[in-house]
Amino acid sequence: MLRTNTCGELRIENVNQTVTLCGWVQKIKDLGSLTFIDLRDRYGITQLKLNIDSDSSLNQIAKNLGREFVLQVTGTVIERESKNKNNPTGEIEILVTQINILNKSITPPFTIEDETDGGDELRMKYRYLDLRRTIVRKNLELRHRMALETRNFLDKQKFIEVETPVLIKSTPEGARDFVVPSRMNKNQFYALPQSPQTFKQLLMVSGFDRYYQIVKCFRDEDLRADRQPEFTQIDCEMSFVEQEDILQTFESLTKHLFKVVKGIDIPEIPRMSYADAMKFYGNDKPDTRFEMKLVELNNTVKGKNFKVFDDAALVVAICAKGAAEYTRKQLDELTEWVKRPQIGATGLVYARHNTDGTLKSSVDKFYNEEELKKWSESCGSEPGDLILVLAGGEEKTRKAISELRLEMGTRLGLRDKNKFSCLWVIDFPLLEWNEGDPNLLASLAGRWHAKHHPFTSPKPEDIHLLDTDPGKIRANAYDIVINGVEVGGGSIRIHNKDLQAKMFEVLGFTKEEAQKQFGFLMNAFEFGAPPHGGIAFGFDRFCSLFGGAESIRDFIAFPKNNSGKDVMIDSPSEISDEQLKELYIKTYE
Amino acid sequence: MLRTNTCGELRIENVNQTVTLCGWVQKIKDLGSLTFIDLRDRYGITQLKLNIDSDSSLNQIAKNLGREFVLQVTGTVIERESKNKNNPTGEIEILVTQINILNKSITPPFTIEDETDGGDELRMKYRYLDLRRTIVRKNLELRHRMALETRNFLDKQKFIEVETPVLIKSTPEGARDFVVPSRMNKNQFYALPQSPQTFKQLLMVSGFDRYYQIVKCFRDEDLRADRQPEFTQIDCEMSFVEQEDILQTFESLTKHLFKVVKGIDIPEIPRMSYADAMKFYGNDKPDTRFEMKLVELNNTVKGKNFKVFDDAALVVAICAKGAAEYTRKQLDELTEWVKRPQIGATGLVYARHNTDGTLKSSVDKFYNEEELKKWSESCGSEPGDLILVLAGGEEKTRKAISELRLEMGTRLGLRDKNKFSCLWVIDFPLLEWNEGDPNLLASLAGRWHAKHHPFTSPKPEDIHLLDTDPGKIRANAYDIVINGVEVGGGSIRIHNKDLQAKMFEVLGFTKEEAQKQFGFLMNAFEFGAPPHGGIAFGFDRFCSLFGGAESIRDFIAFPKNNSGKDVMIDSPSEISDEQLKELYIKTYE
């Protein structure tokens, strides 16, 4: 080893030891006859003391050092005069006797500090420098810890990690596949897996019983802010189980991770039906760190000649605790906020429940205090609260009030990123109608689309609706939601060939298409497939949630930007004609 | 859970308990009034006893059962009359009160037994049934154990697992890349990584210091028997180290795995230079479970009018201990064996060192006993041994005798798969001349090619040969070889921009090509790259070695065949015109 110790480990007990450290120059302080250098490595920062006067060769070297130079230094551990209590090595410093410059550095394009002056694009281009920042490195250390703890936990529960193939077959019934032309099989293509779904089900058919894998998956989507074309899942499957068993097993995993990684005890995770989530929170991944449930006011407010409410399919309110003192200016600003195209409301009605008990609304013309008391009762408002009301088309209004609820939660400080609220959302619908989702192939529009995926089992009591009212069928499907983020989801699967075939039929597959794409799975079901089900956690998101960050990108070592580009290595890029030719493909404009 | 216990856990202590098991029907024995069923799951086999006479509904069900049906059975644990000592559950059986058929099975195309009647192709097509066989499942359990132990070991050594991207950039200077057309970036392609080499080096530049990853890699090669287009590596890199540190760290890992997975204590791993490996074993991955070193006889045998030897660039022998009693027939057969095109020798000369001390050769016409004594002295033969000699062109003959040595090792029972002999081969040449390797792009023929990869550091004392005699340069590169299998390899890397640029020049890159493909790495070296090096283990092969198997395919859940096809899912396959169009590519014949 080129060093005896790291820059994070020396303490007052080590005084008088001769040590050799390696690391990067974080900072140089030139005090004339003394020079101090902060030397940084992954483990910490140690102060070096160079007595320039007494050693002219050190003097020579010290003069030519710069930020991010890589040094190997030897010296004696000494006690510092002015100790730094904020640094674990802050009681000591190294009186340097020898410096060896292992490598020089030109000036980095941004500062290597937690608070850097580098913009997003620049930091991505020089990601290898961005990763030197402690704050970014700690994210990846957290990710490592999460993965290892997950593996050891599942291993103790007798789960086996099995690697499934990356070069598989295109079955673009979900999102678009990335494809890989085959050189050895002319005009044929592999596809990269959107998930190992069919393979893990085959492993259940094989009797593997408890499978997991922390695995890369791929989806050729138009990227939104928090999506990556390649992402990682904790992918799991179990046999001889019912939904309850899966919820309990992965509730234990979740609790275990919170405990060992963050030191937090998570109470029993409550469950909520999809229907209730939509009704009370306006979406299927409610942030339950705070209440502020949606209250439907249709029966309360209609028939008072207020056209906006009378014409609305849905009038819905939230009660913002303690916000009655919002100023007119704040409320105007909030009204503008809900009218932004991303939210899409046409306006905002409010009623203050004043601290003196009186009620005062923005629509007093139509609703007297008597009427407003009914609002208050419905919403459970108390003196000091603010009632916010949106009205309009059912779906759009529900979406808008859901966003407003989150926004008010944020503004009122109810969404502490160090507080965690977990929730199981259950009883999802099996299918949804695809009006023309841009992330699906155009040819799939105007069909039923599987809400989870085509292998999800309908609830036995709803199976009879497959022919008559597919949209009403509930699935044995569940999501785990933490702080309003969908961290994982899964289902009990179909394990019967005929039901699976029927499902493909409902999804608009011809018999031939179903056989061609998924024949292997349906055939496998003929040889004794056990009842099974599973779950997959979005590992990038799980990590970002644990790290208290908004974006998954901070938890991926080398992420791609919103155009799917890695700007550091400049990928994707053109390939040579020789390569194209060997693959029997041509590009065109 | 649909069961209270597994089929592997019930013992005599459980007698009188009421239990519910789930599993597959392995065997049915109909004894008239009694029916016995072997029920199998991942954990074992438990015998079920059905008293048909006393329960007519059981009778009805039992009559319709077949092999591989999936059952849920409830009953009482009872002591068996005739115990089966070979089965951990063999002291008990379940007196069944209730059977629930969870799923039926049609007759499997081959038997689900360790010794199956299914051929290779059939078992691959129905891999999900093949995986039911205990022998195959155990391979994947071993693989899981190896991976987890590796991770926990490296974690304790402060290595961090970092996921590197799968969608990267094509740099086909090694083998061919698999490429992925980008929909969002017209006419541009990602490539799948042949290894995370450049990324792990960037992590060292980032100060990550100790990185590992168990990671899928991809190589578009013409597949030989034991290659897969996608394979898994234990990929590792360390900073502030010299070669010695890496050898010691990964020697520890190797020993740890042998200890915890196989219960074997591996002694200190010896080291051998590449030059010695070629000289004494004829190849760079010698099987050191047995000696039988190569002995060059050029100086001993020339000038005796035996034209074959006189004309040969190399005359080389091995001494097969205790094989003097090989019959003429055996020796003729061995001669045919070395003349096969895969071996390529023109003939075989032998000399028996008889138990009475006399020497008798197949070329007595040219060599009297006095001369043969010289052979014997050179080879260190003793009475009872057999000296085998090949002669011809240097390279071809060395390769042939190396194969003959392995063959004789096998025939003499010296290659026990339960015995393990580890070896470090060091001091590899940096470069080799590419005459036209079919696994490389044709445009790379007639150039120097990096023996490990272009990032390997030449030995400092050999750097001056870069311009004058590149073939003579030795690298700080090393392989770990176990039982003649190259299990891993690595090197100390270049961390200096100028040396890296020089290296690309020697490899025939123009400055522009080098900058375009690897500019990001050379730029990174300007910002304080630390000295670093690493290693990668071929994980599939490592597992197959531990499992005592010849082929890596047995240790991959869903392998591809020699044409790169997955015959189970029928991949690669054609994709739709809609998909091709979105990717701006056309196929052609």
List keywords for this structure.
homodimer, 589 residues, alpha+beta
Q: What's the short story on this structure?
A:
2 copies of one chain form a homodimer. Chain A is built from 16 helices and 23 strands.
Report on the architecture of this protein.
The structure is a homodimer of 589-residue chains. Chain A has 589 residues and is an alpha+beta fold. Chain A has 16 helices and 23 strands. Chain A has helices at residues 56-63, 120-125, 127-130, 134-156, 197-205, 243-262, 274-281, 298-301, 307-311, 328-339, 369-379, 394-411, 497-506, 511-524, 539-546, 577-582, and strands at residues 18-31, 34-41, 44-51, 70-79, 92-103, 160-161, 179-181, 189-191, 210-218, 230-239, 271-273, 295-296, 314-320, 349-353, 359-361, 386-392, 422-426, 431-434, 447-450, 477-482, 485-492, 532-538, 585-587. Chain A has an eight-stranded mixed sheet with strand order 6-9-10-22-21-20-17-11, sandwiched between helices. Chain A is globular. Chains A and B meet through strand 1, helix 3, helix 4, strand 6 and strand 7 of A and strand 1, helix 3, helix 4, strand 6 and strand 7 of B. Strand 23 of chain A pairs antiparallel with strand 23 (585-587) of chain B.
Set out the fold topology.
Two copies of one chain form a homodimer.
Chain A: E1 18-31, E2 34-41, E3 44-51, H1 56-63, E4 70-79, E5 92-103, H2 120-125, H3 127-130, H4 134-156, E6 160-161, E7 179-181, E8 189-191, H5 197-205, E9 210-218, E10 230-239, H6 243-262, E11 271-273, H7 274-281, E12 295-296, H8 298-301, H9 307-311, E13 314-320, H10 328-339, E14 349-353, E15 359-361, H11 369-379, E16 386-392, H12 394-411, E17 422-426, E18 431-434, E19 447-450, E20 477-482, E21 485-492, H13 497-506, H14 511-524, E22 532-538, H15 539-546, H16 577-582, E23 585-587
Parallel strand pairs in A: 3-5, 6-9, 11-17
Antiparallel strand pairs in A: 1-2, 1-4, 2-3, 4-5, 7-8, 9-10, 10-22, 12-13, 13-16, 14-15, 14-16, 17-20, 18-19, 20-21, 21-22
Helix pairs in contact in A: 4-6, 4-15, 13-14
